[in-house]
Design brief:
Number of domains: 1
Structural class: alpha+beta
Radius of gyration: 23 Å
Order of helices and strands: EEHHH
Helix content: 55-70%
Mean pLDDT: 89
Number of helices: 3
Shape: elongated
Number of strands: 2
Low-confidence stretches: none
Amino acid sequence: MSEKEISIKVNICDRFYPLRIKTSEEEAIRAAVKQINEKVKSYTANYRMQDKQDALSMVSLELATNHTKPSLPEPSIENINEKLKEIEQLLDS
C-alpha cells in the first residue's frame, strides 16, 4: 500500500504555494518553509533589503552553498586505534 498524499498550502514570502506531498513529508516541509521565512526576515532586517525577492535569492544561495559543502569522511575505528597507538608510542619515547 502506498503512502497517503495530502494537499497543503505553504506561505513563502507572503505568497501561497499549493503542494501535494506524502504525509510523512509534511513536518520536514513545514520546517523548511519556516527556516526560509526566518532567513528572509533576517536578510531584510540586517541588510535593509526592500525587495523580498532579493532576500529570497540570498537565502537560496546560502542554503545551496551549505548543502553542497564537501563532507569529511567518517573515521573508521581501525584508523582511530592506529592513531592512538602512534600517540602512545610517542608518549612512551
